[in-house]
Each structure stands twice: as structure tokens, then as C-alpha cells.
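Field log, afternoon session.

UNIT: design team B
ACTIVITY: writing a sequence onto a fixed backbone
BACKBONE:
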């Protein structure tokens, strides 16, 4: 049976085996997918071992996404611009690196009927998570994407890297001058129970707010967005399943259905 796995450290918490095994069952693909804890300084050795054992592909999560980019022989544009790889495919002795996180986000937004074309998007954060979604978001032809970050110099550096006239950068205080159609929280603030300090005036009753983080409860950002009267709040569980679906398609050439897997994950989260 074809072997796949996800490398990370820590990795026990990963829901990727459940997601990929469910995709495989639903699409009748014969494959096995497991987690692999790699030593913090043993990532590339672990990948080589897996290739030697006949592994077909792998996902990569924290903290190895940048190293995965370095060991790739070939890269997609979206992986190169993201500066990170979450999907490795092993073909004819070569390592092909891709990044499906941004596509996963875009698919989840579109699945939730969020209009991206001609929209004004506010992207919060300028770290790895934000960087990974910029190119796929630009591909949806938004009117503009404002990247707001606590440390403004990092947002500036990001827009210089992409060099696209639809991108601008600002600090959180300056977010007050506009209302946005879509606000995406790509900061890690939710992981520590914090809220990015953006202006309340950014949200109207038409604004959709998305947090890449998910959990049993709404994140602080989504609680705040609801209190501001946002049209819709969405957490990152669909992005997680969405990025897995794009990886699955790269490996198997089959598009898995995501809806039921998202529902299953939501109900298992609710029981935790
Ligand atoms: P990731 O890969 O999750 O993006 P990262 O590269 O370390 O992680 O980036 C974390 C992002 O979350 C940064 O944009 C960070 O802002 P700074 O650049 O100012 O550090 C942002 N962040 C983390 N905690 C935050 C908080 N409490 N409020 C606002 N932004 C926060």
C-alpha cells in the first residue's frame, strides 16, 4: 500500500491521519497515512529514510516547513513565495515541494460563499501563516489586501517581497481608516488567548471574519468580531481540511469531498 505521513515536532495532536484516511476511504484510494515525530535537528535524515522505505509523499508541519523548502529539488511558485513547504511529493528520486495552506484557505472561504473578487481584504499578521496565503488570495482578484501587523516593519517587508500594487502594509492603529469586506486573522494571537488590537471600525455588518486558528470554543478574535456585528465568523477547521484536500489531489489526482470530514472534525472537537 502507498505510504504517506506528516512530519512535525510535536505531532501527536495532528488530525492529518484522520483526514487523509477518511479521504482515502471515501475516494477508494489504497494508502496508509501516519504521523512521524522527527528530531528537531533530524528532519532531512527522517525524510531520506522515508524515501528509502518507498514513501510516496509527506505533509510537513511546525517547525519544519522552512527546512522542507530547503530540501526540495523543485518548488511551486506558491511555495517559493510562501517561503515554506507543507507538501512533499517523491517522484523519480526528486523531492517536489508545494504549499497548499493558502489554497486551503481560499477553498474554505469560497465554500462559505465569501466573495473574494473585488473585495477589500484585511490580513492580520506578517509571519509564516500570513505569508503563505498572500499569493492564492491575490489569484482571486481582490480589490486590495491590507496587511496589518503589530510590528509594522514585518508587514512592510512582506509587501516589498511580493511587489503587487494591490498590497499595502500598516500597523494595527492605522486599520481604523477603512471598513473591510473580509478580515483574516493570520496572527498566532488566538493560540495564546489574545486579540490583535485592530480598530472596531474595520467591521461592518457585511464583514466576514476568519480565524486560521480553530478550537472547541470561538477564538478571541471571532468572539470580538461577533460583538462588532460581523456578518459571519468562520474558524480555521475548514482551512485545515482544505489544505489536506489539495495535498491529497496532488498525490492521488482525485478531489476528495471535504464537507463531511469538516463536520466529523467539528463534532469530535465538541466532545473533547
Ligand atoms: P506563524 O507561522 O503562525 O505566522 P510567526 O511567523 O511567529 O508564526 O508569526 C506570528 C504572527 O502573529 C506575527 O505577525 C506576530 O506579530 P509580530 O510580527 O508583531 O510579532 C503575530 N502575533 C503574535 N502574537 C500576537 C498578539 N498577541 N497580538 C498581535 N499579533 C500577534
Amino acid at each position: 500500500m502507498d505510504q504517506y505521513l506528516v512530519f512535525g515536532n510535536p505531532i501527536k495532536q495532528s488530525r492529518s491521519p484522520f483526514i487523509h484516511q477518511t479521504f482515502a476511504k471515501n475516494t477508494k484510494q489504497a494508502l496508509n497515512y501516519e504521523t512521524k515525530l522527527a528530531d528537531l535537528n533530524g528532519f532531512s535524515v527522517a525524510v531520506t529514510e522515508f524515501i528509502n522505505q518507498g514513501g510516496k509523499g509527506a505533509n510537513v508541519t511546525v517547525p519544519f516547513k522552512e527546512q522542507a523548502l530547503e530540501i526540495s529539488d523543485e518548488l511551486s511558485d506558491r511555495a517559493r513565495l510562501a517561503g515554506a513547504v507543507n507538501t512533499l511529493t517523491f517522484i523519480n528520486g526528486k523531492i517536489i515541494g508545494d504549499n497548499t495552506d493558502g489554497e486551503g484557505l481560499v477553498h474554505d472561504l469560497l465554500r462559505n460563499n465569501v466573495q473574494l473578487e473585488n473585495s477589500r481584504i484585511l490580513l492580520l499578521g506578517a509571519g509564516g501563516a500570513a505569508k503563505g496565503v498572500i499569493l492564492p488570495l491575490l489569484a482571486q482578484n481582490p480589490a486590495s489586501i491590507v496587511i496589518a501587523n503589530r510590528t509594522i516593519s514585518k508587514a512592510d517587508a512582506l509587501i516589498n517581497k511580493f511587489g503587487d500594487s494591490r498590497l499595502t502594509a500598516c500597523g494595527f492603529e492605522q486599520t481604523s481608516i477603512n471598513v473591510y469586506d473580509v478580515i483574516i486573522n493570520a496572527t498566532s494571537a488566538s493560540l495564546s488567548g489574545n486579540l490583535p488590537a485592530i480598530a472596531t471600525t474595520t467591521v461592518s455588518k457585511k464583514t466576514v471574519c476568519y480565524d486560521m486558528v480553530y478550537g472547541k470554543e470561538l477564538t478571541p478574535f471571532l468572539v470580538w468580531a461577533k460583538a462588532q456585528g460581523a456578518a459571519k465568523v468562520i474558524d480555521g477547521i475548514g482551512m485545515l481540511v482544505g489544505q489536506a484536500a489539495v495535498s491529497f489531489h496532488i498525490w492521488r489526482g482525485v478531489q476528495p469531498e471535504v464537507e463531511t470530514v469538516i463536520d466529523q472534525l467539528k463534532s469530535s472537537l465538541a466532545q473533547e
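LOG NOTE: The chain has a mean pLDDT of 97.
NEXT ACTIVITY: expression trials, pending approval
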